[in-house]
Amino acid sequence: MPATTALRRAFAVMAVLPLLTLAACGYGSQAKDDGAVRVAAGAERTDGLDAVRIGYFGNLTHGTALVGNRKGFFQKELGATRATYAVFNAGPSAIEALNSGSLDIGFLGPSPAVNGYVKSGGRNLRIIGGSASGGVKLVVDPDRVKSPRDVEGKRIATPQLGNTQDVAFLHWAAEQGWEVDAQSGRGDVTVVRSDNKVTPDAFAAGSVDGAWVPEPTASKLVAQGGEVLLDEASLWPDGKFVITNIVVRQEFLEEHPKAVEAVLRASVETNAWINAHPDEAKAVANEQLETDSGKALPAEVLDPAWDSIRFTDDPLAATLDAQAEHAAEAGLLDEPDLTGIYDLTLLNEVLGAAGEPAVDDAGLGAE
Predict the structure, then answer these.
(1) Of the candidates 308, 165, 309, 320, which has an alpha carbon nearest to the alpha carbon of residue 245?
(2) Is residue 222 classed as helix, strand or coil in its secondary structure?
(3) Are 107 and 309 in contact (CB under 8 A)?
(4) Which pLDDT belongs to residue 249?
(5) pLDDT of res. 3
(6) Along the chain (367 residues), what's the average pLDDT of each consecutive run of 10 residues?
(7) Which residues of 178-209 are buried (b: 16+ CB within 10 A; e: fewer)?
(8) What is the CATH code for 5-133+241-353?
(9) How far apart are CA 248 and CA 346, in angstroms?
(10) What DSSP designation does 164 have?
(11) Model-level pTM?
């Protein structure tokens, strides 16, 4: 079902930055190649492809992609088919790259995945795996906000109109009994849509009283003197909720299932390695962040941020369904029909081969 007019307007005004070419036409900045990962001698191409184009965001909640890139897990599984990477700053540009065919597979938050699926009438995208859970916090100025009740009347930043954290904060505010106009952000609480790169400066200047943000932005605010008022994980059953999915173009999935399976196999291997080597994985992810952005995270930000994220192959489909319902309740989506948004067939084959249990699509699988 289509997104509301308000959300479509939000997409329209989000600037798609001029970006470097990725396989003739792209929407994300090309991840730098430090030469560390090479195609193995004698390797064969997967599905006859020269390359598979993988997109992710330059933040720790996309740690599977950061580590899988840096350690060469994706390249190993793809053989002589080159794994190429693009780094995005926001969900709409990644969705546009997938829809245009300039990106094959992307690591995306739940709201961009839902919005992309709904906007295309369920024709363009599929969620094929999970990547990460958690890593989202409400951080506040402790001099101005000492309890959840004190949030009323304050200015709270979220990353973007209709994004995953924006929806989560609006839902939480409604549960407190506060009224907020989702589009304008005005109401009993003022919601300030602020890019994660800008929010720490706004917080330091006192122009916002707090922020509902993902890592590492949350830990950056804590390093500036903020305090965690609420960890979003505390609001979900078993403390688990999806923060990053693996999404593929439906056409690519149909035409190149072996390549998709190779990427999923690499993702499962990467997550297993991360969970077995958390300290080394944290350092590796930070190295890739530095390669991609030119700046590594300091330990006082990196350590708590990494500790709050859980890397998982399970897409936690029931929590994505709940998040979509929250967006509809806030007026950011018409009541969405997400039937068919998942295709976990290949992931479950990979998990079975690795001796791991299958994961569930919460009744939202493709027929």
Answers:
(1) 320
(2) helix
(3) no
(4) 96
(5) 41
(6) 40 33 43 56 85 95 97 97 92 89 95 90 94 98 97 96 93 97 97 95 97 96 98 96 97 97 98 98 97 94 97 98 94 89 98 96 92
(7) eebebbebebebbbbebebeebbebbeeeebb
(8) 3.40.190.10
(9) 12
(10) H
(11) 0.87
Answer for the pair 86, 32: CB distance below 8 angstroms, yes or no. no
Q: How far apart are CA 184 and CA 162, in angstroms?
A: 11
Which residues on adjacent β-strands are paired with residue 202?
none
Beta strands in 2-48 (DSSP E): 29-30
216 upstream amide cis, omega within 30 of 0: yes
193: β partners:
158
Kindly report the CATH class assigned to 136-239.
alpha beta
Burial string for 159-171 (b: 16+ CB within 10 Å, else e) reads: bbbbbbbbbbbbb
Structure tokens at 1: 């079902």
Looking at the chain, the domain(s) classified CATH 3.40.190.10 span 5-133+241-353, 136-239
Query: What is residue 294's three-state secondary structure?
Result: coil
The CA distance from 115 to 324, in Å, is 9
Which runs of E-coded beta strand occur in 144-301?
A: 155-158, 190-193, 210-214, 227-231, 242-249
**Strand 82-88 versus strand 105-108 pairing type:** unpaired
- Per the structure block, which two tokens stand in for 355? 């001796």
Q: Which residues contact 264 (CB under 8 A, 6 or more apart)?
A: 128, 129, 246, 346, 347, 350
Nearest C-alpha neighbor of 290 from the set 69, 18, 135: 69
Beta strands in the chain (DSSP E): 29-30, 51-57, 82-88, 105-108, 125-134, 136-140, 155-158, 190-193, 210-214, 227-231, 242-249, 309-311
Residue 103, token pair as written in the block: 């990106």
Extract the tokens encoding 312: 């998982």
A 10 A CB-CB count for 4 gives 18
* Residue 25 confidence (pLDDT): 35
* DSSP helix/strand/coil, 30: strand
Between CA 250 and CA 268 the distance in angstroms is 21
Tokens encoding 146: 């000492």
